[in-house]
Amino acid sequence: MPTTSFYAMTNLPSAASATQPPIAADAAPQFVRLTETHRKQVTLTVDGAAMTALTGDTVLSAILLHARRVRDTEFSGEPRAGFCLMGACQDCWVQLEEGTRIRACSTFVKDGMRVLTRSLGVTGA
Q1: Do the beta carbons of residue 43 and residue 50 sit within 8 Å?
Q2: Origin, by domain of life (predicted)?
């Protein structure tokens, strides 16, 4: 069974060095990995861009380790980064390239997985 990783959110105040310029809010990832870096690395594609994750990561954590948001809401276009992070709120739905919708927070990454954060139409839920 995959092991849960521990992450820290990067939007919390930090003790940035005076010699390093601040990172733009949209440029910094939402999460940073703190532990369990020894697990096997896998590659997935999100919206056509290749990214890496570790075996046992969820799609949500894999995306947020590289970006500030998971998707934009279909209602207002506002950015969304998940809400409950445990499968209860319906906020992290994304779509596999073949059309199946998945909850990013409760779906584990697979090597070669192709994820779309912008819906093309629903074929399963």
Answers
A1: yes
A2: Bacteria
Q: What is the DSSP letter of 58?
A: B
Which residue ranges make up each domain of the chain? 5-9+25-119
Beta bridge partners of 43: 52
How do residues 103-112 score in pLDDT, each as one tens digit? 999 999 999 9
pLDDT per residue as tens digits for the range 20-67: 444 455 578 888 888 888 999 999 999 999 999 999 999 999 999 999
pTM above 0.70, yes or no: yes
CATH 1.10.468.10 fits 5-9+25-119, yes or no: no
**13's tokens:** 């105040």
